[in-house]
């Protein structure tokens, strides 16, 4: 098992002291509150309206929503003929884009974009979750998929991940079927403009009878996710070491007093609502950020 770490960024400059290559295997997700857990929108929806929250109703509701969305999609878009009925993940990705509850969890390859989403609407201590996608990928290759690592292209791996994911999405309820529990990193074949600008990808849990967190525990081969708290200086030191135990998770805490400075720095890097969200909605939302920059 690898290390699971929590640390606090006391100033924006500290992120640049971490070895850049050290962060390359990680993908990131920003949360506006530091105590928020990794949880999909369909989990939250079912918890709110259905009890017990995770049971056969998860797959039943997922099947119904996917059927209804794909059946009516042509009324709103002329792209429906580009997506086959069996491309369930592609349909889920579009549903996620337009706000439907799904089992997909948004992540980004960029720490800076995750920082933006963590603090732009935050009124308290925020956080960024960083997960080691190489460890998730290798778990799939070693236990579920048949290919030789380092002999296959990144896009070919993604296609294998999509094919694997499609086995579990909107599956008919079968009390005798035992789902594998793991996490799949995925990118849609039809990349929309917003996902492209946000350098986005998704993580998908395979077992709908367990939470995202429990699927993640299985993927990391651990019974619990206990984060060891270390100083940012210690993490900087770890990032410079070549031979060390792999790090699976890093949770960065962003104190409230750092947010205004981070927003200003992100604006200087051209990371704004206007650049991340195409269209007038991005422009309108970016005005607040521009005002902060001028304050």
Could you describe the 3D structure shown?
This protein is of the alpha/beta class and 295 residues long. The chain has one domain. The protein is 42% helix and 15% strand. The protein contains 13 helices and eight strands. It has helices at residues 20-23, 41-49, 56-72, 88-97, 111-119, 133-143, 154-166, 193-197, 212-219, 232-239, 259-268, 273-276, 280-294; strands at 3-8, 26-31, 105-108, 126-132, 183-186, 200-205, 228-229, 247-254. Strands 2-4-8-1-7 form a five-stranded mixed beta sheet. The protein has a three-stranded antiparallel beta sheet with strand order 3-6-5. α5 (111-119) packs across α11 (259-268).
Give a short overview.
The protein has 295 residues and is α/β, with parallel strands linked by helices. The chain is built from 13 helices and eight strands. Helices cover 42% and strands 15% of the residues.
What string, H for helix and E for strand, traces the elements in order? EHEHHHEHEHHEHEHEHEHHH
The number of helical elements comes to 13
Mean pLDDT: 88
Low-confidence parts lasting 5 or more residues at pLDDT below 50?
A: none
Largest sheet: 5 strands, mixed
The largest sheet has its strands arranged as 2-4-8-1-7
C-alpha-based Rg, rounded: 20 Å
Spatial gap, N to C terminus: 47 Å
Determine the strand fraction and express it as a percent band.
Answer: 5-15%
Number of domains: 1
Helix proportion range: 40-55%
| Oligomer status | single chain
Number of strands: 8
Shape designation: globular
Secondary structural class: alpha/beta
Explain the layout of strands and helices.
Blueprint: E1 3-8, H1 20-23, E2 26-31, H2 41-49, H3 56-72, H4 88-97, E3 105-108, H5 111-119, E4 126-132, H6 133-143, H7 154-166, E5 183-186, H8 193-197, E6 200-205, H9 212-219, E7 228-229, H10 232-239, E8 247-254, H11 259-268, H12 273-276, H13 280-294
Parallel strand pairs: 1-7, 1-8
Antiparallel strand pairs: 2-4, 3-6, 4-8, 5-6
Helix pairs in contact: 5-11, 11-13
